[in-house]
Write a structure and sequence with these properties.
Helix content is about 25%, strand content about 30%. The chain is of the alpha+beta class. Strands 2, 3, 4, 10, 11, 12, 13, 14, 15 and 16 form a ten-stranded mixed sheet that branches. It has a three-stranded antiparallel sheet with strand order 6-7-8, with no helix packed on it. It has a three-stranded mixed sheet with strand order 9-18-17, covered by helices on one side. The two termini are about 40 Å apart.
Length: about 290
């Protein structure tokens, strides 16, 4: 409905291995994942792998092809398409700097640099910035951030990356995106505003250059983001305990992009008094 089908790929991704021992050990897990969760896969030997990805170096000896997963070539473009679709249905998007939230006369008031907004109900979906707002509203939840980094690259001349791939024994990912080949690191535990620490990205780039025909960086500065996490690694979704008309939707960790639409649907179901499509008790705000 959002006209964004061209941004979706349905050809899965490759978990690539360097040693036979690690490859064999993970194959048993892959079979278990397929049996328990329906995540389908195919075993790819060295010859098949290098036919699928000619730009890979000799260190790659085999892979698991996760075959029924989807990916997005332009995440920002997909979000924009959803926003445009929302507006086409009669919705309004207002971008402003929020300054304060208060409750009075049965309404929630949001003060911004473009004036005040008032509503019967308010959804706080503020990601890694949630602790600041929660403190103002009298809540204290065990939140922390996992920071991550990425950089976009060209492929080396004559090379192309056909699938998203994970270098399973080194712990980074390379993904073909509209903006270039995205190299993504693991997680860094730090505060949200701490200065960037680029050692992990630089180490991953060194490994990636020996693994795939990677070209030049496309940006001068790496991207840095913070993922909002709760102590039990589950989000908070639902009514805020102790405040009528206040709803929480934050703490999705690394899965915010994929769980965002589902969270919106669940919040809508609860606000409309419908039975949510899943049991919401594990995501209650008072579970701590």
């Amino acid at each position: 409905p959002a006209g964004a089908e061209h941004l979706i790929r349905r050809d899965g991704w490759l978990q690539v291995f360097r040693t036979q021992q690690a490859f064999d050990a993970f194959l048993a897990k892959a079979r278990d994942f397929e049996t328990r969760f329906g995540v389908t896969h195919a075993r790819i030997d060295r010859e098949q792998l290098h036919a699928m990805e000619p730009g890979l170096g000799d260190a790659a000896l085999g892979a698991i092809h996760w075959t029924n997963t989807w990916s997005v070539t332009d995440p920002g473009g997909l979000v924009q398409a959803y926003a445009d679709y929302f507006v086409s249905l009669g919705g309004t998007i207002k971008q402003a700097e929020a300054a304060d939230i208060t409750r009075g006369d049965g309404h929630w008031r949001l003060d911004t640099d473009q004036g005040a907004l008032s509503a019967d109900e308010l959804v706080l979906a503020t990601g890694p910035w949630s602790p600041e707002w929660l403190k103002r509203l009298g809540y204290e939840l065990p939140m922390f951030v996992m920071r991550g980094y990425h950089m976009h690259y060209d492929a080396a001349e004559g090379a192309a990356l056909n699938y998203a791939l994970m270098d399973a024994e080194k712990g980074y990912l390379l993904t073909p995106k509209k903006a270039g080949l995205r190299l993504t690191t693991g997680a860094e535990l730090n505060t949200i505003d701490a200065p960037p620490r680029l050692g992990q990205l630089e180490a991953a780039e060194r490994e990636a250059r020996g693994f795939f025909a990677l070209g030049a960086r496309r940006e001068a500065t790496p991207w840095k983001g913070a993922r909002p996490c709760l102590a039990d690694m589950k989000p908070v979704i639902g009514p805020a305990h102790g405040n009528d008309g206040l709803w929480f939707a934050f703490g999705h960790g690394h899965q915010g992009f994929t769980l965002g639409p589902a969270t919106g649907r669940l919040i809508g179901q609860m606000m409309d008094g419908e039975t949510p499509m899943v049991d919401m008790r594990p995501f209650r705000s008072d579970r701590f």
